Amino acid sequence: MAATVNLSSTPSNPISKLPSFSLNSPQKTSFSLFPNSSSFPCKPFSHSLKSEFITTSSKNPISDLFPPNKSGPEGDILSSFSVDDDKPREECGVVGIFGDPEASRLCYLALHALQHRGQEGAGIVAVNNNVLQTVTGVGLVSEVFNESKLDQLPGEMAIGHVRYSTAGSSMLKNVQPFVAGYRFGSVGVAHNGNLVNYRALRAMLEDNGSIFNTSSDTEVVLHLIAISEARPFLLRIVDACEKLEGAYSMVFVTGDKLVAVRDPYGFRPLVMGRRSNGAVVFASETCALDLIEATYEREVYPGEVLVVDKKDGVQSLCLMPHPEPKQCIFEHIYFALPNSLVFGRSVYESRRVFGEILATEAPVDCDVVIAVPDSGVVAALGYAAKAGVPFQQGLIRSHYVGRTFIEPSQKIRDFGVKLKLSPVRAVLEGKRVVVVDDSIVRGTTSSKIVRLIKEAGAKEIHMRIASPPIIGSCYYGVDTPSAEELISNRMSVEEIRKFIGCDSLAFLPFDSLKKMLSTDSPKFCYACFSGKYPVMPREVNVKGVGDSMDDGLNTPLASIDGHWIEGPPNFDLEKEIDPLYQESKI
Questions:
Q1: What is the pTM of this model?
Q2: 42 an active-site residue?
Q3: What CA–CA distance (Å, rounded) separates 388 from 568?
Q4: What Å distances lie between residue 59 and 62, 525, 548, 563, 579, CA to CA?
Q5: Ranges for the Glutamine amidotransferase type-2 domain (predicted)?
Q6: List 42, 92, 318, 525, catalytic entry
Q7: What is the C-alpha separation between 555 and 428, in angstroms, rounded?
Q8: Is pLDDT at 136 greater than 90 in this prediction?
């Protein structure tokens, strides 16, 4: 039986031993075992799921359900002084390593490569002589770990996690990986994604005696594994996954096994690679493999469970049936690093083509093309090359500004943006400027950037956005504002142009995006652009404008992770879903 040693400042509580009980799920999963995982393509096939979700007719199918907040979205959204506060936030990155004597150190380096996926907390669990040892902390990877901490994590197997919290302070007990002991040993888990039926599962578990130590949906998975009557451990994971709805790319570790799991829709990325010594590596992006000199082999297929141990090597268990994949398109637009392969595609090439499409479909007479760094750079290069206009660095980004900064008593306008971005007057003065950014969420930061460029002497400013308008919140592991805060859900393109103060504004056309993806287009999730959700949450996580959330540790259960509202019984999705979807069915 594996033991657990927690080296962080917060002890890990063992999961209670509970009797088994039934958890109803809208999809029942069967499975088949494929020992030769390297050659088995876990091909999905169409499977209809009954949707249970509240929706009404509007640009965003949830926006009319909740009374709009009277205060506008401007608010104080830059109080933490980060340009990125007006972007969707990828909430997690995960790593798993098996069969390397320096597993924890390699895990540490891989987490560095994934730091862009989460900056609020980091952790590593290593296995040595059947003992799970963990170090977790709040902050960047470099702040959480040092030489002495890594010395406490010996062993040839490790998993790691970087985390972004929605707002407020990141409490240590919510930092992953989580480790729990149950009657057959110990298990650690790191999770990227979001379970849309979390509250229902948690309530059911608590009714049967479970005690939760965090407000994270990931802890539900550990409880489900603990109460499962399936044997062996691998089938416990399968049993638990049968009850999960939503997005999950997870890595598990026990005393002798490393397990990687991806949800049937494949919302969040997860890849597999190998080092020259045969060590197996799993990571959210291929950029993590590159840093630790692991060769990319393939994706973990949607609906696949991969198990690695010394006895059997790598085995693949395919959860079936499962639907057509719905991979997150925003990985290619914003989240992933340009040097990564995500869902089998180069992120760099995707963004370059986005820029080319904008230059073709929304041309404008200009003297220079600039980017909002860093995520707009590659699309700007594509725009400039296609338009035959020079690309120049018109905005310089400071990488040395933290999340907070002391503002002088005499208030400086657009202080947060000015801390992060500095305009280059020599590039901008007297010029007709095309500014390429990856997305517009609230619009507040875009208006400040336009103002900066105007103050630097630009003659004209033409904004080009390398994504379609965002009209819907994400429920699959991305922190996005409420519907009321999404400017494209409230305004037309012309209204947005006036709001941010530019001379012209164009978004990447939705149809052109799908055309560019060609035959892969049906495999992507576009819920944030269309309001059509592949997995309809029965519990709608809605944040009011300006909500301050603290991970639920200092507030009532009702406010954990926002405000969860269950759909009314007998609600007919097909009759109420937005008009665009109804038109598409005709």
A1: 0.78
A2: no
A3: 55
A4: 9, 17, 25, 21, 9
A5: 92-311
A6: 92
A7: 48
A8: yes
